């Protein structure tokens, strides 16, 4: 495994994020062929994601880690939406998605909470852009993580607020089923956990 971070650092944002994602795609291809990543590979991938996807350059234990600006966040959201809407193999796409949005060891912390909020925004954007491919990735991720986990409920609430509270549309949930039945079923399972009358009035 060749460390490409120095090469990517020579490229300015947002192109650096695009190059890092394509590098991550290549790294994940072997993992879809029953070759689990080593701890060294996982550490490298985690550092790649921190620096070039979430633009997090702060020390791991810092109390105030540098965060993206609103404009940078919007740019990264659009880049990710386009990346996961590409013709990449489903297995690779799902693996990359898992790597980006699953914390090491599965232990939630403040960084995990920030990234779950970010993921909620990404899913909302995917719905608005009608990206069935990205929503399919989100559905696989939600199923593997467990639809009743607390942070998944937060994602479901963020998405429901965006699409049923701020801009109610009775036809929208039907469109979701057509876009991605898998995501929609996982979303409804999570919503059921917090018994949202707003959502179920649209079913």
Describe this structure in words.
With 203 residues, the protein is an all-alpha fold. Helix content is 66%, strand content 0%. Helix 2 packs antiparallel against helix 3 and helix 5 crosses helix 7. The longest helix has 19 residues. It starts with a helix and ends with a helix.
Give the CA-CA distance, first to last residue. Answer: 48 Å
Number of strands: 0
Instruction: Quote the beta fraction.
Output: under 5%
Broad shape: globular
By DSSP (H or I, 4+ residues per run), the number of helices equals 11
Radius of gyration: 17 Å
The averaged pLDDT comes out at 84
Structural class: mainly alpha
* Portion of residues within helices: 55-70%
Question: Biggest sheet, in brief?
Answer: none
Uncertain segments are: none
N-to-C order of helices and strands:
HHHHHHHHHHH
Write the SSE topology.
Blueprint: H1 5-9, H2 15-28, H3 39-52, H4 70-84, H5 90-101, H6 110-128, H7 132-145, H8 150-165, H9 172-179, H10 181-193, H11 197-200
In short:
The protein has 203 residues and is mainly α. It has helices spanning 5-9, 15-28, 39-52, 70-84, 90-101, 110-128, 132-145, 150-165, 172-179, 181-193, 197-200. The protein starts with a helix and ends with a helix.
Keyword list:
single chain, 203 residues, globular
């Amino acid at each position: 495994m060749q460390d490409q971070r120095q090469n990517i650092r020579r490229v300015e944002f947002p192109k650096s994020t695009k190059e890092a994602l394509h590098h991550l795609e290549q790294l994940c291809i072997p993992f879809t062929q029953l070759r689990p990543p080593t701890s060294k590979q996982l550490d490298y991938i985690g550092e790649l994601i921190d620096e070039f996807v979430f633009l997090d350059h702060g020390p791991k234990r810092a109390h105030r880690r540098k965060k993206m600006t609103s404009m940078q966040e919007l740019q990264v959201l659009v880049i990710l939406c386009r990346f996961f809407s590409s013709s990449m193999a489903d297995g690779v796409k799902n693996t990359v998605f898992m790597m980006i949005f699953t914390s090491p060891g599965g232990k939630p912390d403040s960084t995990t909470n920030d990234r779950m909020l970010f993921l909620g925004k990404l899913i909302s954007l995917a719905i608005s852009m009608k990206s069935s491919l990205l929503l399919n990735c989100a559905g696989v991720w939600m199923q593997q993580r467990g639809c009743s986990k607390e942070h998944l409920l937060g994602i479901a609430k963020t998405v429901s607020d965006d699409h049923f509270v701020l801009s109610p549309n009775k036809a929208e949930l039907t469109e979701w089923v057509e876009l991605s039945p898998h995501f929609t079923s996982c979303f409804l399972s999570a919503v059921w956990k917090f018994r949202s009358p707003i959502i179920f009035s649209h079913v």
